């Protein structure tokens, strides 16, 4: 029977292993995928190394270099697999050459090997996980699994789907990559822009789900924001001359600066104009502005950099009244040209309503309703309700907020919208009473 000391050693080892795995798993999987040309197999063998650590470290003690230990065991497993596979093919002459080459890759100086090609391996892994041959959902799940080190349970919890659903997405994604014979490489220059767009989209989707959770009882899921920002920073280091990479990082840094102010004491959402700007993280703002400046130095603003410039306008305003709404409106005009979409038009309506009056904003929103482009999008009636309230049309505003509340799947947001509907109803009732008293 294990004593208290043994139990404590196991717990300590488990904490170290978890921390090392979070940091190093993508590097290990990337190195194995380079050797094996098979992402699914690379992850399995990396997991085998993790299991070995869980079995050995509590008894033998934590090694001086845990990351190097895991990499050594994982690469040895990969070499054993290649030996076995090559023997099965009965190609003895090829075996000697292949194994000697791979042994050189794995040794002798493992500390140096940890650094060799690490950047390239991570970059290759990003492009594999975000390959266009996969569905968007599969790209997101595989990216969080391979590059974020999240378990299927953690991914499922973050996106409020079953663990089985996430597991199926990951398995199918690996199978699709194998069947398509996707090469483990960074795309050539002619393909880089298109493939990079897929990588950026996945990171952006992960971040957005963390920043404004689409469903559940939490307004934000900070873990997803942190993972997306970490991936963005890694990508900016690997592709330092790509302006849109820096644009996306700038956007995430500045948006993340508001995280503490976006949630009230009881977990309720706090809207932008109601936030305590003293709680905004100035370090993240400075980092975001520096990334935005870097994007501008490298070329013209793309969609992510334009959105970051919009966020920067808010970040520079010490009070809501100091916000340069006309500048933001001009940036939204540019964004609509670069990335035309109904959602961009809805946000543009909000900004034009702030810059030039709610009547103009309402006119644009009504045009979106007429086009039926956002039929079940809860923010459409929410925006319309806000514009109507600013015009003093409280009963109409109340109905819009109630409709928005019925459409959202996020419980925190629903409560906020219902509270706004109740407030509009109360103001409308006061207005009716005042009108009746004046008439009498």
UniProtKB/TrEMBL annotation:
Family indicated by similarity: Belongs to the sigma-70 factor family. ECF subfamily.
Any Pfam family hit: Sigma70_r4_2
Domain RNA polymerase sigma factor 70 region 4 type intervals: 126-177
Protein name: RNA polymerase sigma factor
RNA polymerase sigma-70 region domain residues: 27-85
Gene3D superfamilies reported for this sequence: 1.10.1740.10, Winged helix-like DNA-binding domain superfamily/Winged helix DNA-binding domain
DUF6596 domain: residues covered: 195-295
Organism: Massilia aquatica
Keyword annotations from UniProtKB, A to Z: DNA-binding, Sigma factor, Transcription, Transcription regulation
PROSITE patterns in the cross-refs: SIGMA70_ECF
PANTHER family given in the database record: BLL0085 PROTEIN, BLL6612 PROTEIN-RELATED
Record InterPro entries: DUF6596 (IPR046531), RNA_pol_sigma-70_dom (IPR014284), RNA_pol_sigma70_ECF_CS (IPR000838), RNA_pol_sigma70_r2 (IPR007627), RNA_pol_sigma70_r4_t2 (IPR013249), RNA_pol_sigma_r2 (IPR013325), RNA_pol_sigma_r3/r4-like (IPR013324), WH-like_DNA-bd_sf (IPR036388)
